[in-house]
Amino acid sequence: MKTLFISDLDGTLLNSNAEISENTALIINSLIKKGLHFTVATARSERTAIPMTSCLDINVPRVLMNGVIIYSDGYIKYHTIPEKNAFEISALFKKHNIKGSIFEITDNKLNVRENTDININYADNPIYITSNNKYDILLPLERDISKLENISHTFYEDTYTGKWFLEIFSDKATKANGIRFLREKYGFEKVVCFGDNLNDITMFSESDLRVAVANAKPEIKKLADFVTLSNDEDGVAVWLGEHYKEFI
């Protein structure tokens, strides 16, 4: 059975130092040599996700920015925020006096305007808007964003700082849609995923088998078929080493 194994990064595959341990890399790379199909799905862009996973011999395109981008040595696919929504989002950020970061693709390159007023030039192909702040500050904006059509968003606590992320993108772009694309394009019959945080819920919904790390949010553990060791105990790699043969 051709199975895709796909893992979140922060809080899941990465340890508390935001690194892939030598043991995790050793186990996963040895399994890839044996035929494991492995990739990652993350809120990160290629600017950080690629260097962080360079120790792995990843052999399936990465799902980046919560499904906005499918990436493998370049963009296989990406989703732009619809023009009407881009102006609506700009107005809502102005209404709540909140700054954020705008991710755009121009000339087939990712450009980021960080910690700025959200003024969007649609010609620059906006694909992702994010803000990182205290929960109470972002919540009113999140409630307004949730009312927009054709838009998806995630709202979850940062793994490292205790602040919250609000991430906004086209409703065609989710981790679930990214997995669906990989499943259909590359003929995977089954998907096994690993996660820890609220932005992994859509990925869990699209997977056939769901594994949470021990440090995962309670909401994720409730959705999981298995709970493995924590991200600081190489939980993803240990689970793969114990169960991979079941999927051959």
Q: Could you explain how this protein is built, in words?
A:
The chain has 248 residues and is an alpha/beta fold. The protein has 9 helices and 13 strands. Strand 3 (62-64) and strand 4 form a beta hairpin.
**Which regions are unreliable across 5 or more consecutive residues at pLDDT < 50?**
none
The rough form would be described as globular
What characterizes the major β-sheet? 5 strands, parallel
- From N to C, what is the helix and strand string? EHHEHEEEHEEEHEEHEHEHEH
Mean pLDDT: 94
The proportion of residues forming helix, as a percent range, comes to: 25-40%
- Percent in strands: 25-35%
Rg calculated over all Cα atoms: 18 Å
Structural class: alpha/beta
Q: Please provide the count of β strands.
A: 13
How far apart lie the N and C ends?
6 Å
Trace the largest sheet across and list its strands.
2-1-11-12-13
The helix count comes to 9
Keywords summarizing the entry:
9 helices, about 25% strand, about 250 residues, alpha/beta
Summarize the structure.
With 248 residues, the chain is of the alpha/beta class. It has helices at 9-13, 22-33, 46-52, 83-95, 135-145, 175-186, 201-206, 218-223, 235-243, and strands at residues 3-7, 37-40, 62-64, 69-71, 75-78, 100-106, 109-116, 126-133, 151-157, 164-170, 190-195, 209-212, 226-227. Helices cover 33% and strands 27% of the residues.
Q: What are the SSEs and their pairings?
A:
Blueprint: E1 3-7, H1 9-13, H2 22-33, E2 37-40, H3 46-52, E3 62-64, E4 69-71, E5 75-78, H4 83-95, E6 100-106, E7 109-116, E8 126-133, H5 135-145, E9 151-157, E10 164-170, H6 175-186, E11 190-195, H7 201-206, E12 209-212, H8 218-223, E13 226-227, H9 235-243
Helix pairs in contact: 2-9
